[in-house]
Specification:
- With 196 residues, the protein is an alpha/beta fold.
- It has a single domain (5-194), classed as Flavodoxin domain (Rossmann fold), CATH 3.40.50.
- It contains 6 helices and 7 strands, in the order βαβαβαβββααβα.
- The strands form 2 sheets. The chain has a 5-stranded parallel β-sheet with strand order 2-1-3-6-7, with helices on both faces. A two-stranded antiparallel sheet has the order 4-5.
- This is FMN reductase.
């Protein structure tokens, strides 16, 4: 197994969470397996998540924490992102990271297009997205059409060239059944060891 450069982004706004615990397990196992790991926690980042006027001509300068996150993504070969599913999507503050940091010239190139779409600039990287939810996985798929997966994979990470993006979903997160968290941690530990 070839060691990877792995950037982990804890997308839960709280200081302590299941997402953070899962990612710490991933990080510990990845480091033990020889991968180079860097980690950032959304809770610790200071930035304005509001993009503002909504155009790419006069955007706000990126705060140092957003510059740091973007630099870590650019450094990485593999991105690991975890967040809770809130109202069918990632938390608004996490979405603000992508709204603000994924800009032309860093995440995509609007000057070079193919079929009217900008050229991705973050290619050559893969991703693992870990989602915790109270909604059963079958309900997410059959009723909601896996909307959060499609958005994260296609309209955010894939748009910037990060692919493939693989998902790990854990449901019943607010009141897990006995033994569930231990099983989740073991699954995440295996992913960390593999750098997957």
């Amino acid at each position: 197994m070839t060691p990877k450069r792995i950037f982990i982004l804890d997308g839960h706004p709280a200081a302590q969470s299941l997402s953070r615990g899962l990612l710490q397990t991933y990080a510990d196992r990845a480091r033990a397996a020889g991968h180079e790991v860097r980690i950032a926690h959304l809770h610790d980042l200071t930035f304005d998540p509001d993009f503002g006027a909504g155009n790419y001509e006069n955007w706000k300068p990126l705060e140092p924490d957003l510059e740091h996150v973007l630099a870590q993504i650019e450094w990485s070969e593999h991105l690991v992102l975890a967040f809770p599913l809130w109202w069918g999507a990632m938390p608004a503050r996490l979405k603000g990271v992508f709204d603000r940091a994924f800009l032309p010239g860093r995440a995509f190139d609007t000057r070079v297009t193919k079929m009217g779409m900008p050229t991705p600039m973050l290619g050559g990287r893969t991703a693992r997205v870990i989602v915790t939810s109270d909604t059963p996985i079958w309900f997410l798929r059959l009723v909601y059409g896996n909307a959060v997966l499609r958005q994260t994979r296609g309209q955010i990470l894939g748009f910037a060239g990060i692919k493939p993006t693989r998902f790990t979903l854990f449901s019943g997160a607010s009141a897990p059944k006995p033994g569930a968290v231990d099983r989740w941690m073991k699954r995440i530990a295996r992913l960390g060891t593999a750098g997957a």
